[in-house]
Amino acid sequence: MPFYTYKCPTCQVETDILQSMNDPAPICENCSKHSVGIHEPKMKRIFKPNAKPGSKDGSWGFGK
Question: How many domains does the chain have?
Answer without folding.
Answer: 1
